[in-house]
Amino acid sequence: MSSRKPSARAKRVAAFRSKLAGADDAFERESKRSHALDIERERARREKACASKRRYPSRDDALDAIAACEEHGRRGLSAYRCPYCNGWHLTSHPWSNAT
Ligand SMILES: [Zn+2]
Q: For the chain, what percentages of helix, strand and coil (3-state, to nearest 5) are there?
């Protein structure tokens, strides 16, 4: 009787392992899908933060543009270094008009 135990145990282990492998597949599919979502989110963020904005080659250029805007009454703009294109963009701070 005891001689059959190892093989029964080996079968259980094999079954358990194949179950785990299936879980790995499901996990991998899920992580691939959320990775695709991440890419889409990243693309949208980039579109909003970079591609849809005017680009300035340097901080001075961006500050000049802000000064020009302020001459026309457009306040609350600030410049930031873009992590995507390494240029500079302007962003408006709605909260800075509150006070
Ligand atoms: Zn950019």
A: 65, 10, 25
pTM for the complete prediction?
0.58
Residues 66 and 30 in one domain: no
What domain range includes position 72? Answer: 54-99
Same-domain check for residues 91 and 76: yes
Residue 16's pLDDT band, with cuts at 50, 70 and 90, is confident
Centroid of ligand 1 to alpha carbon of 91 (angstroms)? 12
Q: Residue 55 Cα, ligand 1 centroid: separation in angstroms?
A: 6
Q: Clarify whether residues 3 and 28 are in a common domain.
A: yes
Cα angle: 52, vertex 82, 51; to 5 degrees = 15
CA distances to 69, 76, 93, 95, 96 from 99, rounded to whole Å, are 19, 11, 12, 8, 7
Considering only CA atoms, give the Rg of the chain.
28
Place of tokens 């961006």: 62
